[in-house]
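Progress report, Aim 2. The chain analyzed during this reporting quarter is listed below.
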Amino acid sequence: MKHALLALLIAACVLPASALGKGPSGASIDGPGSGGSITFSGDGEYGGSPLGNLTEHAGFFPAAFGQEPSPLLASRPNGDLGPKYTITYTVPGPSNEPNQIRQDVYPYAHPAPVTYMEPGQPIFDMQTRGGWFQADAALKQTLVDAGLPKNAPAASTSGSSDVPTGLLSLLTALVLAALGTATALVIRRRTRPAAA
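Predicted structure tokens for the chain:
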């Protein structure tokens, strides 16, 4: 019994720290209305810290490493998911080289937030499993507590349009041409000599 305990103790001291913990060491989120990048810190492996709550509520571990039974959805949820944000996790690698793992999050989706992690992202000596994850209201609250607006931001009118840029340019040119022609006709009428 003493030998087994001693062997376990030696093994724990010899294993690198990265082999003992595979959670993120940090994360940031970007998207509409976030006012720039919002960062998360703390222990990413367990709930209780901002980062730990994020990884837990966003389904980071099942999406990154897989889990049985899997809580991931078979496909994208139906309907409009609302604005998309991107979480970028920093995950320390085995040789202290960090992996950047990205996960999309839709905090304002109804009835509850959803996330999506693209499969095949490198993490440790493997790749992310990836997939859609149905979160609960705790994810939205975690994001709001970190700085996201409580309600979905209004769609931006600057730089985004449903009208393709080429069509918008053509319409602008036609309106300007029509205004130019109308102006020329008005000037021409005013400059004609009056009939005697």
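Residues 90 and 100 are 5 Å apart (CA to CA). The beta strands are 26-30, 38-40, 72-73, 85-91, 99-106, 114-117, 122-123, 126-127, 131-134. These observations will guide the mutagenesis work planned for the next reporting period.
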